[in-house]
What does this fold into?
Amino acid sequence: MPSEFEQQTWVVVPALNEREVIGPCVAELRAVFPNVVVVDDGSRDATGDEALASGAVVVRHPLNLGQGAAIQTGIQFALSRAAGYVATFDADGQHRVEDLKRMLDILVREQLDIVLGSRFLGHAEGMTLGRSTLLRAGVQFTNLTTGVKLTDAHNGLRIMTASAAGRIRIVQDGMAHASEFIAEIGRLGLSVREAPVTIRYSAYSLAKGQKMSNSFRILADLFVGWLLR
Amino acid sequence: MTIQLVLSVMLVGVAVLIALQRTTARLLRLGVLAVIALGGFFVWVPEATNRVAETFGVGRGADLILYVWVVITLALIVILFLKVAQLSRKLTHLARAIALGNPKLPAHHGRERDGGIR
It folds into this structure.
């Protein structure tokens, strides 16, 4: 039986063309967290149907907007269902449900606003040296620009209280939302802790995941977002 | 002579298009028409640009027109860029509203059509 806190949690899973993996991902999550919302970001495959069949609620963007937009949509859905806690979890199988379970425990026990997963406190299976170097450079950049000191700024595994989720505003529709999350934590002065997590890089997640060259796009997005603030 | 005729016809064409833009603010339309009229004047009296250039400390009228053109183009790019960013934010809000307005609930929640799923 899920604990009282697990039942109050809504897990947001942004997904784009994840038909092959979304079913098992939702099933694994629902073994612990009964409330899962998959935000289908305009997939051209049966991602939404698979997620629904596995017991998730599905909200679907009529067109592809980006992962940041999907997460913000999921958060708003969770809040509309009177969630007590809101988590974000990647669809591609790189996150582990037991890590999220542990993060929820930390969040509740230490009465924090938000707990972030860190692969550098924990470990990352199958991470290349190039990816590790780039991610660490990204962490330095985010620490410098947001004033929040973290070890891993771009981890999609997070859990926060409903009140924190309601105050954080993600307007970066694309991949720059990860940095924006940290910036929002800094701006709102939220209490944050990182928890070690294990990231499982698979051939699937690496093929689907971010190409390293995308970091320039993210920097450009952040600059534009800063201009428009 | 030929180029002056070609340019004049194009300017008149643009002027007509602008004049017909009922949705644009009248003041803005008048401003653009004034700029077009000035352009028409310079097309037929190109020496005039040299005198204007001199007062701004620019050697030739043609150079002054190039500089002004560059500034106007950059300004237009920035304005269009901001418009696109604004539009994409509106699009996001619209798509989000559509998504949130039509949640699909899994079979075992079917009986609770609206309201809490828990």
Residues 1-45 of chain B form one domain. The two ends of chain B are 80 Å apart (CA to CA). Chain B touches chain A at residues 82, 85, 88-89, 91-92, 95-96, 98-100, 102-106, 108-109, 116-118 (CB under 8 Å).
